[in-house]
Each structure stands twice: as C-alpha cells, then as structure tokens.
Amino acid sequence: MKNFAKCYFDIVGKLTIGEEDGKLTDLHFETSGTYPRGDLNMNETPLLTETGRQLGEYFEGKRKCFELPLAPKGTPFQMRCWEALQKIPYGATVTYGDIARAVGSPKGFRAVGLANNRNPIAIIIPCHRVIGANGKLVGFGGGLDVKSNLLLHEAQYVNRRL
C-alpha cells in the first residue's frame, strides 16, 4: 500500500510525496494534473520524513543531490529518459533533443517531452532542467513559473560548495 505525506515550500507550493515498500514512487505539485486527489493513505513513514528533510535542504541551497531509493513506474523508454534526467548536473540545463540522443532515440525529442510529462517524481528526477532547443522554458507539469523558480534557485547555488 502506498503511503503519502504533504509538504509545502515557498518556491513550489504544496507537494505530495508517496512511497511504497520503502522506495519513493511519487512527488507531485499541487498545480499539476498528476496531483493525487481523493482519499490517500496519509501515513508519515521514515522515508517520507527523510524525503521532506532532503527537499528542505535542497530549497535552502544546502543539497544538490538527493540520496533516496526511487521506484518510478513507467515504460522502458520512460525509465531510460528518467535515468538520463538524473545525470543532468545541478544548475545545468539540456534540451529535449539532448535527452533523446542520450537514450538512443535521436529524433525522439517529442517522446522525451511526453516521458518528462509523465515523470512521477518531480524535482528529484529533475525534468525541470530540460528546456526547448531554442533555449526557452517549455512544458512542465508544475507550470512554467515553478520551472523558472527551480532553475533560478539552482543557479544561485550552483557554484557554492556544500
């Protein structure tokens, strides 16, 4: 059974995080279409507490990398995309085409966009670091304002030693 907890951070607003069998499965923005609705098993587990703590450190500029067990669910292509996203350095951006090439599908930038849209563990699997080929911010489940805020947040701490 999945367990959920809610948290709030000024930069992004309300988040719902979920875990199952000791692995993180969900992190959704309240503003996204994937935000869980209805009756949730609200049960603060040690992993959910640790996830909230690490997110707090991230938003305070004290954490650049998350150390959490992840179990996103998706197609094999989505999983390859999400693995590639986790290799994008903190404070950096890449294009959808870059990710498409990284997963062996050089013309699959639209499919990468769909995989990003289905990313079940936002921020920790950093789909916010993917931008359009023209350098513009495009497509983000939490909204472009949140994407911009996350990128600006990382930019201010990127060269800071932790």
From TrEMBL:
UniProt-recorded Gene Ontology molecular function terms: methylated-DNA-[protein]-cysteine S-methyltransferase activity
Span of domain Methylated-DNA-[protein]-cysteine S-methyltransferase DNA binding: 76-155
Active-site residues annotated for this sequence: 127
UniProt-listed Gene3D superfamilies: Methylated DNA-protein cysteine methyltransferase domain (3.30.160.70), Winged helix-like DNA-binding domain superfamily/Winged helix DNA-binding domain (1.10.10.10)
Chain coiled-coil ranges: none
One GO CC term, this protein: cytoplasm
CDD domains named among the record's database cross-references: ATase
EC number(s) on file: 2.1.1.63
Top-rank taxon, per record: Bacteria
InterPro entries according to UniProt: MethylDNA_cys_MeTrfase_AS (IPR001497), MethylDNA_cys_MeTrfase_DNA-bd (IPR014048), MethylDNA_cys_MeTrfase_DNAb (IPR036217), MethylG_MeTrfase_N (IPR008332), MGMT (IPR023546), MGMT_N_sf (IPR036631), WH-like_DNA-bd_sf (IPR036388)
GO biological process assignments: DNA alkylation repair; methylation
Subcellular location: Cytoplasm
Positions of the Methylguanine DNA methyltransferase ribonuclease-like domain: 12-72
Catalytically driven reaction(s): a 6-O-methyl-2'-deoxyguanosine in DNA + L-cysteinyl-[protein] = S-methyl-L-cysteinyl-[protein] + a 2'-deoxyguanosine in DNA; a 4-O-methyl-thymidine in DNA + L-cysteinyl-[protein] = a thymidine in DNA + S-methyl-L-cysteinyl-[protein]
Keywords: Cytoplasm, DNA damage, DNA repair, Methyltransferase, Transferase
Spans through the membrane: none
Cross-referenced NCBIfam families: ogt (TIGR00589)
Family listed: Belongs to the MGMT family.
Known function: Involved in the cellular defense against the biological effects of O6-methylguanine (O6-MeG) and O4-methylthymine (O4-MeT) in DNA. Repairs the methylated nucleobase in DNA by stoichiometrically transferring the methyl group to a cysteine residue in the enzyme. This is a suicide reaction: the enzyme is irreversibly inactivated.
Extra remark: This enzyme catalyzes only one turnover and therefore is not strictly catalytic. According to one definition, an enzyme is a biocatalyst that acts repeatedly and over many reaction cycles.
HAMAP family in alphabetical order: OGT
Protein's name in the database: Methylated-DNA--protein-cysteine methyltransferase
UniProt organism field: Cloacibacillus porcorum
